[in-house]
Design goal:
mainly beta; 8-stranded antiparallel β-barrel
Protein backbone atom coordinates (compact mmCIF):
# COMPACT_ATOMS: atom_id res chain seq x y z
CA UNK A 1 0.00 0.00 0.00
CA UNK A 2 1.49 3.36 -0.93
CA UNK A 3 1.39 6.57 1.12
CA UNK A 4 -1.49 8.15 -0.84
CA UNK A 5 -3.72 5.08 -0.44
CA UNK A 6 -2.89 4.80 3.28
CA UNK A 7 -3.58 8.51 3.82
CA UNK A 8 -6.94 8.31 2.02
CA UNK A 9 -7.92 5.24 4.06
CA UNK A 10 -7.10 7.00 7.34
CA UNK A 11 -9.07 10.11 6.31
CA UNK A 12 -12.03 7.92 5.35
CA UNK A 13 -12.03 6.20 8.76
CA UNK A 14 -11.77 9.53 10.59
CA UNK A 15 -14.59 11.07 8.54
CA UNK A 16 -16.80 8.06 9.22
CA UNK A 17 -16.07 8.16 12.97
CA UNK A 18 -16.79 11.89 13.17
CA UNK A 19 -20.09 11.59 11.30
CA UNK A 20 -21.36 8.55 13.21
CA UNK A 21 -23.46 10.70 15.53
CA UNK A 22 -24.02 13.69 13.23
CA UNK A 23 -27.78 13.04 13.19
CA UNK A 24 -28.09 13.06 16.98
CA UNK A 25 -29.41 16.08 18.86
CA UNK A 26 -26.94 15.63 21.73
CA UNK A 27 -23.38 14.45 22.35
CA UNK A 28 -22.21 12.33 25.29
CA UNK A 29 -18.60 13.03 26.20
CA UNK A 30 -15.75 12.26 28.61
CA UNK A 31 -12.72 14.42 29.06
CA UNK A 32 -9.64 15.46 31.00
CA UNK A 33 -8.43 18.86 32.11
CA UNK A 34 -5.34 20.66 33.32
CA UNK A 35 -5.20 24.11 34.89
CA UNK A 36 -2.68 26.52 36.37
CA UNK A 37 -3.49 29.46 38.56
CA UNK A 38 -3.43 30.83 42.07
CA UNK A 39 -5.00 29.69 45.35
CA UNK A 40 -5.78 32.26 48.04
CA UNK A 41 -6.77 31.39 51.60
CA UNK A 42 -8.98 34.07 53.20
CA UNK A 43 -9.56 34.68 56.91
CA UNK A 44 -10.41 38.20 58.01
CA UNK A 45 -7.56 40.45 56.88
CA UNK A 46 -5.19 37.56 56.18
CA UNK A 47 -4.84 36.48 52.52
CA UNK A 48 -1.90 34.12 51.93
CA UNK A 49 -1.73 32.87 48.34
CA UNK A 50 0.39 30.61 46.17
CA UNK A 51 0.51 29.24 42.65
CA UNK A 52 -1.39 26.04 42.09
CA UNK A 53 -2.37 23.44 39.55
CA UNK A 54 -5.46 21.30 39.14
CA UNK A 55 -6.00 18.03 37.28
CA UNK A 56 -9.45 16.76 36.45
CA UNK A 57 -11.82 14.48 34.62
CA UNK A 58 -15.37 15.08 33.47
CA UNK A 59 -18.35 13.38 31.84
CA UNK A 60 -21.36 15.11 30.40
CA UNK A 61 -23.97 15.76 27.76
CA UNK A 62 -23.74 18.51 25.15
CA UNK A 63 -26.98 19.77 23.55
CA UNK A 64 -27.31 22.73 21.15
CA UNK A 65 -27.42 25.63 23.65
CA UNK A 66 -26.58 23.88 26.92
CA UNK A 67 -23.92 21.56 28.32
CA UNK A 68 -24.24 19.66 31.61
CA UNK A 69 -21.34 17.80 33.25
CA UNK A 70 -20.04 16.13 36.36
CA UNK A 71 -16.45 16.99 37.21
CA UNK A 72 -13.75 15.71 39.58
CA UNK A 73 -10.60 17.78 40.19
CA UNK A 74 -7.49 17.42 42.31
CA UNK A 75 -6.21 20.83 43.50
CA UNK A 76 -2.50 21.03 44.26
CA UNK A 77 -0.86 24.27 45.46
CA UNK A 78 2.82 24.26 44.45
CA UNK A 79 4.81 25.66 47.39
CA UNK A 80 3.22 23.84 50.32
CA UNK A 81 2.25 20.28 51.11
CA UNK A 82 -1.43 20.93 50.45
CA UNK A 83 -4.09 19.31 48.33
CA UNK A 84 -7.84 19.06 48.00
CA UNK A 85 -10.37 16.99 46.09
CA UNK A 86 -13.28 18.66 44.34
CA UNK A 87 -16.53 17.23 42.96
CA UNK A 88 -18.76 19.60 40.98
CA UNK A 89 -21.90 19.64 38.86
CA UNK A 90 -21.57 22.25 36.07
CA UNK A 91 -23.99 23.84 33.62
CA UNK A 92 -22.85 25.86 30.59
CA UNK A 93 -24.73 28.14 28.21
CA UNK A 94 -23.03 28.35 24.82
CA UNK A 95 -23.35 30.39 21.66
CA UNK A 96 -24.43 28.33 18.62
CA UNK A 97 -21.56 29.26 16.29
CA UNK A 98 -19.74 26.96 13.87
CA UNK A 99 -16.18 26.00 14.87
CA UNK A 100 -15.47 28.24 17.88
CA UNK A 101 -18.19 28.40 20.55
CA UNK A 102 -17.98 30.92 23.41
CA UNK A 103 -19.62 29.79 26.66
CA UNK A 104 -20.44 30.86 30.21
CA UNK A 105 -20.76 28.31 33.01
CA UNK A 106 -21.46 27.87 36.71
CA UNK A 107 -21.06 24.95 39.07
CA UNK A 108 -21.85 23.80 42.57
CA UNK A 109 -20.32 20.94 44.50
CA UNK A 110 -18.00 20.09 47.35
CA UNK A 111 -14.36 20.38 48.41
CA UNK A 112 -13.45 17.31 50.44
CA UNK A 113 -10.66 15.13 51.80
CA UNK A 114 -7.69 17.47 51.69
CA UNK A 115 -5.01 19.13 53.79
CA UNK A 116 -3.36 22.50 54.09
CA UNK A 117 0.39 22.41 54.90
CA UNK A 118 0.14 18.70 55.89
CA UNK A 119 -1.47 19.86 59.15
CA UNK A 120 -4.98 21.22 58.75
CA UNK A 121 -7.72 19.00 57.37
CA UNK A 122 -10.14 20.42 54.85
CA UNK A 123 -13.76 19.98 55.89
CA UNK A 124 -16.43 18.80 53.52
CA UNK A 125 -17.36 22.29 52.33
CA UNK A 126 -19.73 23.52 49.66
CA UNK A 127 -17.91 24.98 46.66
CA UNK A 128 -19.04 27.26 43.85
CA UNK A 129 -17.38 28.04 40.54
CA UNK A 130 -17.88 30.22 37.48
CA UNK A 131 -16.29 29.67 34.06
CA UNK A 132 -15.90 31.70 30.87
CA UNK A 133 -14.35 30.08 27.82
CA UNK A 134 -14.16 29.00 24.20
CA UNK A 135 -14.75 25.56 22.70
CA UNK A 136 -12.78 24.67 19.58
CA UNK A 137 -14.23 21.88 17.43
CA UNK A 138 -12.27 19.74 14.99
CA UNK A 139 -14.71 18.83 12.20
CA UNK A 140 -13.12 15.50 11.18
CA UNK A 141 -12.42 14.17 14.68
CA UNK A 142 -14.75 13.45 17.62
CA UNK A 143 -12.74 15.84 19.83
CA UNK A 144 -13.40 19.26 21.34
CA UNK A 145 -10.92 21.52 23.11
CA UNK A 146 -11.96 24.02 25.77
CA UNK A 147 -9.89 26.99 26.94
CA UNK A 148 -11.46 28.68 29.95
CA UNK A 149 -10.94 30.89 32.94
CA UNK A 150 -12.36 29.62 36.22
CA UNK A 151 -12.98 31.10 39.66
CA UNK A 152 -13.65 28.59 42.47
CA UNK A 153 -14.84 29.61 45.94
CA UNK A 154 -15.21 27.32 48.98
CA UNK A 155 -16.28 29.20 52.15
CA UNK A 156 -15.20 27.88 55.56
CA UNK A 157 -13.19 25.03 54.04
CA UNK A 158 -10.86 24.54 57.02
CA UNK A 159 -10.09 25.93 60.48
CA UNK A 160 -6.78 27.14 61.96
CA UNK A 161 -6.74 28.32 65.60
CA UNK A 162 -10.52 28.87 65.68
CA UNK A 163 -10.41 30.95 62.46
CA UNK A 164 -12.33 29.65 59.45
CA UNK A 165 -10.55 29.97 56.11
CA UNK A 166 -12.10 30.27 52.68
CA UNK A 167 -10.45 28.92 49.54
CA UNK A 168 -10.44 31.10 46.43
CA UNK A 169 -8.88 29.46 43.37
CA UNK A 170 -8.64 31.23 40.03
CA UNK A 171 -7.00 29.60 37.07
CA UNK A 172 -6.79 29.01 33.35
CA UNK A 173 -7.89 25.57 32.20
CA UNK A 174 -7.44 23.48 29.08
CA UNK A 175 -9.80 20.58 28.56
CA UNK A 176 -9.91 17.84 25.94
CA UNK A 177 -13.30 16.16 25.45
CA UNK A 178 -13.93 12.98 23.46
CA UNK A 179 -17.41 12.74 21.91
CA UNK A 180 -18.93 9.22 21.91
Amino acid sequence: MNIKTTGLAILGVLATAANANAEMLYDIYAGVGLSVGNMTLHSGDEHPHESSAAYGAMVGIDIPFLRLEGEYSYLNPKSSHSYAHLAMFNAYVKMPTELIKPYLGAGIGSVFKGQINDTYNIKNATAYQAMLGLTFEIPVLPLKFDAEGRVLYAPNAFTIANDDYDILQYDLRLKLRYIF
